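Please produce the structure of this protein holding adenosine-5'-diphosphate.
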Amino acid sequence: MAPPLPPPTDSTPLLHGEFGSYPAHGPRFALTLMPQALHIQRLRPKPEARPRGGLVPLAEVSGCCTLRSCSPSDSAAYLSIYTYPRGRRGGRRRATRTFRADGAATYEENRAEAQRWATALTCLLRGLPLPGDREITPELLPRAPRLLLFVNPFGGRGLAWQWCKNHVLPMISEAGLSFNLIHTERQNHARELVQGLSLREWDGIVTLSGDGLLYEVLNGLLDRPDWEEAMKMPVGILPCGSGNALAGAVNQHGGFEQALGLDLLLNCSLLLCHSGRRPLDLLSVTLASGTRCFSFLAVAWGFVSDVDIQSERFRALGSARFTLGTVLGLATLHTYHGRFSYLPADVESASPGPNPGLPRAKSELTLAPGPAPPLAHSPLHRSVSDLPLPLPQYPLVSPGSPEPLPILSLNGGGPEVAGEWGGAGDAPLSPDPLLPSPPREALSPMAKGPPEMLTSSGFPPPTLDVPVANSTCGPPDHLLPPLGSPLPPGWVTLEGDFVLILAISPSHLGADMVAVPHARFDDGLVHLCWVRSGVSRATLLRIFLAMERGSHFDVGCPQMGYAAARAFRLEPLTPRGVLTVDGEQVEYGPLQAQIHPGLGTLLTGPPGEPTREP
Ligand code: ADP
Ligand code: MG
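Below is the modeled complex.
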């Protein structure tokens, strides 16, 4: 077998051909498939002077399928491409483009041509190499990746299920991904379920909620005796919560403009359809009681954790809860006395050992973050479709057409690509995902709709001062001495009054809060940010407003500090306060943490340059 083609450049034409449209008497087009885009040029009635919608970025394509006409006399085959372009107001709208392969005399030949295009397009979407020598046929595509989706019906404004049903499921069905869906019924439900999961049944676990549900899933995987194997399971996040920080970072990594709400969800769903993954750094956090948990997002003390927990009562506002909380928090600004120590990233990691004096920082480090490292391209995740759920039937109608349209069947029974990929309605359900340990009833079939609790009780109040469930497995923290023992040489200690201390792994603290613009999922760093007392309310507000663009380091606030670290210890010396790990409140008291580079695997979609949107 000859090697695959060398990687094509962005403008390399991979396929070129002439197609008609649906209905048949419509215009004719020349299509050119390139690695990053599909170029559509109208040939007849006449070439457009200024073609509109002529270049479809593949970043906006969820998937495609082939169809045939129900009319036996129609020898053409059809290729439907599902796109999500942005409308005039910026929001994405679904648009299907259907093309007619009619260059050959027989249906079989036309079908082979439509399948060739659909296969090539799917390979591009999924990062699969196109063969150099062989015909492009559906057999090139491996089986569909199987995703386990967890939906928290209470996430954010309680729209998770509605958004899932109306937007996510149709899109991932178009992409030909196979999935099972579970409604979480209570806090820690997802955590328990992943502990009993048969890992080989799944290619990824995706949460539809805020950051809290993914936190549960990751900690559940790390609770398993086989945690090393379990951590290879890619996890993904589809933002349906009020705190969607990781999704904000995924969105930025994918090259999309900052987005909120449904726009962010559609962007992240598109990225999920395209596959692609990155290692995800996780922070192992040890609390005063000895309890250990794993954080993918942030440990916060002071202003940030106060706002997060106090704004719980405004969760009906969605992400706006943090804006309101920030304004209210400014009115009652507190300072907290504490000691904050860290192992700077550029210090060779010394094993912790007995150390007499507590090293103190000579002068406080208030470094401006360095330039962002170049984005590394990761290989894309291989995938195909053996869709278990019916694709929504979108009527193919042309309002202006006087003649009755032939009805197209979606891979319907005919020898189309249904069996291998492309989204058939009658493919079998994925196998039962769970081992016997969690009861079978724990699975809510996706047709069932949200649990009744949704309309009745609203969201349960946040549990205060409840320690997070202990993670007994997971890698050892080789950089940390026991909490309470002196720190090894090379650590820096700051002591004083703080307005906030934040230790964050990814770039985003919220979907529109770029706390550390240069942070990467796998930079092996925990980014420490703090603001000391003495800051004015006006400056603090400026910092949080500037965070939307990630320009808060330019505010020039002398009380603000930053350091890149591999481990830290936080010792609150003020008797009362709120500590959060990934937005969830944990026991108050000293804690310490170390970063575990690339311990998790995150479904991110392919990396994109910020220019990928037209
Ligand atoms: P949000 O960003 O809206 O807070 P999260 O994903 O952070 O969304 O979820 C909030 C909390 O809800 C998490 O602690 C999660 O464990 C919990 N949770 C998940 N499913 C349920 C459920 N069915 N009922 C109550 N709480 C739940
Ligand atoms: Mg949350």
